[in-house]
Design a protein that fits this description.
Layout: H1 9-24, H2 27-30, H3 36-50
Length: 51
């Protein structure tokens, strides 16, 4: 079983982080987006194991 995620979520989070930083000047608050990566990986792993 490979450990590749179902969706490139870390890349998506980086894109969202840059968008928030550039357009909303929220560099200091947008880092919280990165805290969702382990949560996503946990649920993606459980979803894959059920399949």
């Amino acid at each position: 079983m490979d450990n590749k995620p179902l969706f490139p979520y870390a890349t998506f989070c980086t894109l969202i982080y840059v968008i928030f930083g550039v357009f909303f000047h929220a560099w200091d608050r947008a880092w919280v987006i990165y805290l969702t990566i382990p949560i996503f990986m946990y649920f993606a792993k459980n979803y894959r194991n059920k399949k």
